[in-house]
Amino acid sequence: MEKSEILVTTTEHIPGRDYEIIGEVFGLTTQSKNVVRNIGAGFKNIVGGEIKAYTELLTEARDIAIDRLRQNALDMGADAVVMMRFDSDSISTDMETVAAYGTAVKFK
């Protein structure tokens, strides 16, 4: 099975599928944007509105976290991940940590 074939769902049950629980899986990443983008974000903070550099940072971090979650599930022999959730936190003014976590399951 390929990593991209690992089903990831936020639901507790996958309709029409029976499975056994393997265990907890997660994917973590910490991302930071460069100084030039941080300066631009600082100016945007003065006038208001969306700070696109940080939106991009969080989108990239989310994608990496899910990719690592899938790899963790694949390494455990899972077919899917149920109850997937995100958690995020700021480490400093320009770094964000994103965790994707859930329960790895094997189809019967």
From TrEMBL:
Listed Pfam families: YbjQ_1
Q: Which domain of life is it from?
A: Bacteria
InterPro entries in the cross-refs = UPF0145_dom_sf (IPR035439), UPF0145_YbjQ-like (IPR002765)
**Family of the protein in this entry:** Belongs to the UPF0145 family.
Question: What is this protein's name?
Answer: UPF0145 protein IV63_GL000492
Organism field? Companilactobacillus crustorum
